[in-house]
Amino acid sequence: MLLSRFFRLPLTASLVLLACSAFAQTPALATAPTDPLPRLIQERQLMVQQYEAANTQRNSLFGNKPSKKDLQEVVDALKGIIRKDTEIVRAVQAGTLRKTAAVVAENQQAKQQITVAQTDQSSTRERFHDLENQISNLQERDKQREKKLQDLQATATEATQARTSRELLVAGLAVVCAGLLFYVLKLRSRLSTAPVKRRK
Question: Could you list the residue ranges forming a coiled coil in this record (predicted)?
């Protein structure tokens, strides 16, 4: 449940806020029909629902605990969310780069008209600096998100390995029990046939 909260709320909210702040000064770009962010965020929410469904799967054969297949589905769902997060980050970065290019063009125009537009030029510098800060913040958050996802994937892998070890131990004990049962049955058959031979 903690994993689902982590994936559903903070990352989606932070990406949406970053996207809104990056496009706040260019509403035409933010509302353009080619903007992939709403579609990507919706696809990510569907993947989170698939992850939650996979995370709640239980197998009655294993004491109502997740099976290896269930854990693999959880890992696959996490990988899908990681890939979708990467797509969202790239879409946000692409929009930010488009905004940066527009700011650079405005800066060049301000340099050409420097005698009459000194105020506009300083404003453009501030906007460009803000965009650089947004890009660096986005990259830092992306690194933190990837580290958290790697930690979660490592935890899932450890759980899978532990389950495999238990299953191998159970299988080994079953083989030993079958061998002992076979030995006991064979010993009984020998003991039951031994008195008959003495009577003859």
Answer: 121-155
